[in-house]
Amino acid sequence: MTNSMTNLTDSSVTHVMEEHNVMLHLILPANQVNDVVDCLLAEKPALFFTVIQTQGYGQPQERLTVREQVAGYQNKMMVQIECSEALARQLLVNIKQELPTATINYRILPLIEHGQL
Q: CA-CA distance, 19 to 90, in Å (whole number)?
């Protein structure tokens, strides 16, 4: 992947993407989010990330509580971190070492472009 520059409207928005940027998504139960956030806040240099409340559908019924079965979903949290691919992989290793029993699903997605309008 090479660096790219995007120009939207005559000069209102310009952003240069770094090489191999990705978006790391961590999807986890709400009761584990504080531990994951603590791990991320300990990273140097400091990371910028967001935490979003979300709903998980499609889990096998035996994994759901009665309340979740009635509602049809599980309450989950998603942490989104924009970083290099190498850093994303290192973060996964660090989190696994710090929280070996945590139940965290993850995705590493290519980040094609981002900016501010």
A: 17
